[in-house]
Amino acid sequence: MKKCFTALTLASLLIVGSGFFQSAYSYKLLFMMSPILAGEQQGTGNNNVVGWQPLNDTGITWSGNYASGNNTACVASTTTDGDNVVAAQDCSHGRDTTHNDDSDGHAGFSYTKLDSNGVPLANQNADYATTPWACVRDNVTGLIWEVKTDDGGLHDKDDTYIWYNTDPATNGGADGYANADNDEDICYGYNSGDSSTFCNTEAYVNRVNAAGWCGASDWRMPTRKELEGIVAYDRYSPTIDTDYFSNAVSSHVWSGSPDAGYSDHAWAVSFYDGFSGAYYRSIFVAVRLVRNGL
């Protein structure tokens, strides 16, 4: 069931250490209510309406331990004053605690493997090498994600793209770059004389939709928040559940989110360490497409 809010209920507050905190660090506090807002506003024609969807948890099932080291089991740990250290930490909250079942994804993540027609595999325990799947459905958010291949084809994991979007409603005021100046052949099917084959994000989305990948033609670039939602923060290189996202690369992946401060930048998420950043749109970066499922 979908709902919407007429006011923004998700806020991020950055508090720089001073006065009360007496700290050299910055703290990011995230105030949330359920249901949780999950991403950038979608174009609805009403600027006061914000879409929402559930969020995944972080995948972190361990905590810091008093007075040093890590608590790998996320069990009770108290200070000398009797305060429960673990109860206030990430591993004690959210789906990683309430739905910690590795049978369908690490910790609180829940995924379904889909074949090239978008149909769930009969054997969800199948190995990719023997029964490759084409897409993954996120059962928490309802989103369906592209799974990369290692075959030199349209979805090959090593292909990279420059950021390009000709829709003024979503591109942040600038299109980006349709083609590299040096005509680099760094994606499947590239032909310098055919703009439909260019190695940019918009052309790639169009090619995947034309192919009807996983039985669908409504693939799009994910928002930054959606990409961050499949990051598994308990690991690195790559920071994603590779039991479902086969052939995942340990590199940056473009989102469709433009940078609000610089019209020649857009947001990408690193699947090496899970951090996000805004980069020049002319940089060649990997892409993982998404579509609305449920």
Give an overview of the whole structure:
With 294 residues, the chain is mainly beta. It folds into three domains: 1-52, no CATH class; 56-100, no CATH class; 140-294, no CATH class. 7% of the residues lie in helices and 19% in strands. It has three helices and 14 strands. The strands form five sheets. A four-stranded antiparallel beta sheet has the order 7-8-9-14, with no helix packed on it. The longest helix is centred in the C-terminal third of the chain and has 11 residues, at 201-211. It is globular, with a radius of gyration of 21 Å. Residues 1-50 have low confidence and may be disordered.
- How widely separated are the two ends? 9 Å
- In terms of DSSP E residues, the strand content is 15-25%
Shape call: globular
Largest sheet, strands/sense/barrel: 4 strands, antiparallel
What helical percentage do the residues reach? under 10%
Low-pLDDT runs: 1-50
Secondary structure class reads mainly beta
Gyration radius (Cα, Å) is 21 Å
Mean pLDDT: 83
Instruction: Note the total helix count.
Output: 3
Number of domains: 3
N-to-C SSE string, H for helix and E for strand:
EEEEEEHEEEHHEEEEE
Number of strands: 14
The main sheet orders its strands as 7-8-9-14
